[in-house]
Amino acid sequence: QVQLVESGGGLVQPGGSLRLSCAASGSIFSINYMAWYRQAPGKEREWVATITSAGVTIYADSVKGRFTITRDNAKNTSYLQMLSLRPEDTAAYYCQTSHYWGKGTLVTVSS
User: To which H or E segment does residue 25 belong?
Assistant: First the structure.
């Protein structure tokens, strides 16, 4: 079992930034990648970014160049640094690995 807990969401103005965190606990030895997804109101959940255990990162085109995913293996934590936020980035953001999901943290981009 792996438990994932997201934090760092909030209200930010367009152009602003936020850093989300995802803390993993439990059978963390089984984690070989960590990913972030998001789900905007009325829309399907979409993949945002992934980081592998080797540190390889990939991003959705919609966030490439603005978001950065990192991980601190010593803290069993993944981060999603989000810059130049847009209203369309408003969503609940979820951390995921294997078949485990966190409960999400809400990001609202609005003036």
Answer: strand 18-26
| Tally of CA atoms within 13 A in the half-sphere of 46 that contains its CB | 15
Name which of 100, 99, 97, 89 is nearest 39 in CA terms: 89
Q: In whole angstroms, what is the distance from residue 30 CA to residue 39 CA? A: 26
Q: Tens-of-pLDDT digits for all 111 residues of the chain?
A: 889 999 999 999 999 999 999 999 887 766 789 999 999 999 999 999 999 988 999 999 999 999 999 999 888 899 999 999 999 999 999 999 988 999 999 999 999
Closest to 44 measured CA to CA, from 5, 107, 94: 94
Q: Kindly state the DSSP code that residue 29 receives in the 8-state scheme.
A: G
